[in-house]
Amino acid sequence: MHNLVMKKAKHQIIQFSRNYESYSYRLTTKVVSKMLHGLFLFKKRKCEILAGATTFFALLSFCPAMLLFISLIGYITGDVEGAKSVVLSTVNENIPSLAPWILKSISAIVDQQLHTTKSSNVFNILFLGYSLIGLISALMYGVRTIAGSRASGGYLVEDAKSFLVGTLMTVFFGFLFISSNEVLFKAIFFSGQSEFPSFARTIFNFQILPIVSSILFFTAFYKFSSGKKISSANAFLGACSFVALFILGKSGHWIYVQTSKQDLAQNYGNFSSMVMAVVWIYYLVCSFFYGASLSNIEKENVFSIVAVKDEDSVDPDAPPAIPGEEQYFESAS
């Protein structure tokens, strides 16, 4: 029996070694095909327009979001001032070429909002979370538009769903702040040790926890927020694409520094950093909706062939047919 198993395993290894080029070609073709179909669906659903509207909500929610994360981290650690410095440093690290004067202005706004209290409580966290409903609703509306599904349940139900999703997203981003900041990571997970264990140092240096948690969270978000049945494999592919585009955009920032930074500075002066920050947020939202497009690809034909009736069978005096709601919202995928 053992010899039979070893012989079968050896046969599979030989078969794979002889056909790995064919396997690689098929896998590459399938992945590239999925990415192209996702791009076509992205363009068909006008996601660049959805991304522009969502960017507007993101800018309006920027300060409430910062206060929310400061309150959340301050509630966990008991140190609001330390939480403020962590959030501001994280913003500075994740928004490319943010000018120091903008960071100081943001810090002044945050200080003015926090001067009335030196502690965080659940009520403040829930209130700030409610202020982010507009951004969460815009993200969920975009995902449902891409999926071709309609919201149901009325305004109160949709607001409740947005608030629930916003609460989960707030907890998730709070975990991202903790897992990507060395001081918080050590204080939360290794508070009783003077130094990082070797395995913890490896996990933190390679940012394994933020990457894995982001993929898992957005896989669940794409799967359950679209309003229709989405396969876990497609949702996982969309989440991986979004995270990869975020890493690619952040790592490829040097291209902007080498090519267009001086031109932006000449055209916009001190506001060039703000322009770049808006473009960066727009890029992130486009990447998010592209991941949603990939998660909604169920068939190979994104653009189906539309049958055209014979001209002889059509009454020239008849008014044009008005498409129904079912036809309008029918998913292309």
**Helix segment tally:** 16
Radius of gyration: 24 Å
Biggest β-sheet, characterized?
A: none
Percent strand: under 5%
Distance between the termini: 48 Å
- Secondary-structure-based class equals mainly alpha
H and E string:
HHHHHHHHHHHHHHHH
Question: Based on CA inertia axes, which overall geometry fits?
Answer: globular
Give the secondary structure arrangement, pairings included.
Blueprint (H helix, E strand, L loop, with lengths): L1 H43 L2 H14 L1 H16 L2 H15 L5 H15 L7 H9 L2 H15 L6 H27 L1 H8 L8 H8 L2 H18 L6 H20 L1 H7 L1 H8 L3 H24 L29 H4 L5
Please characterize this protein's 3D structure.
75% of the residues lie in helices and 0% in strands. The chain is mainly α. It has one domain (35-313, 323-328).
